Amino acid sequence: MALAIFDLDETLIATDSDHEWGQYVAESGLVDGEKHKRRNDEFYDQYKAGQLDINEYLKFSCSVLANHPLEVLNQHRTSFVDERIRPNILTEAMNLVSEHRAAGDYLMVITSTIEFVTRPIVNIFGIETLIASIPELINDRYTGNIIGVPSFAEGKVKRLNSWLEESTLSLEGSFFYSDSHNDLPLLRLVDHPVAVDPDPVLRREAEARQWKIISLR
Q1: Is the pTM of this model over 0.90?
Q2: Count of alpha carbons within 13 Å of 202, Cβ hemisphere only?
Q3: Catalytic amino acids?
Q4: Is the dihedral of CA 96, 47, 22, 64 positive or negative?
Q5: Domains in the chain, ordered, with CATH?
Q6: Overall average pLDDT of the 87-116 stretch
Q7: In what order do the strands lie in the sheet with 106-114?
């Protein structure tokens, strides 16, 4: 049984759920719309440029959760997934996941996007194991803080290694699929790194290292 690891945003889905959630809450009146949208775009540009301060970003992202009751957030999340995510589910991504499932591989998604946003998306793919940035929840209320190491860049490697310590699985024969150069630390770790519709930086790295390059679009 090989470990088949997938990035989520712009890999299994044809959008960035993190950025889309920020746009959604801005347009739904959950935050100061124009200010939040502007800051959300700034963080997204930093992410694409490889210059994101993940702790600063997660503080921004989790502030939305801290300012509303869980029931309200859950209602909005359902609408968000239906309106913004389901239309961006990639058929070829579904097929790829199904191929690994049929091969008996262990399926996992690792994403820097917070668990609150990503759990229902990963469920659509029928994948149980999710490593994501975890917002702190106390007495059914989000605090605005993150628990543990954010699963971003090198943090994905740290979180995966922690998970492996509690598992009977290893990285022998492992796959990792990603579109982003921010995931290079984990791509360099697995046996079968695969660049999926890669950004320019990742494409150059993949070509130089003769990694497999695929498109799911």
Answers
A1: yes
A2: 27
A3: 7, 9
A4: positive
A5: 3-13+89-214 (3.40.50.1000), 17-87 (1.20.1440.100)
A6: 98
A7: 141-147, 129-138, 106-114, 3-6, 175-178, 192-196, 212-214
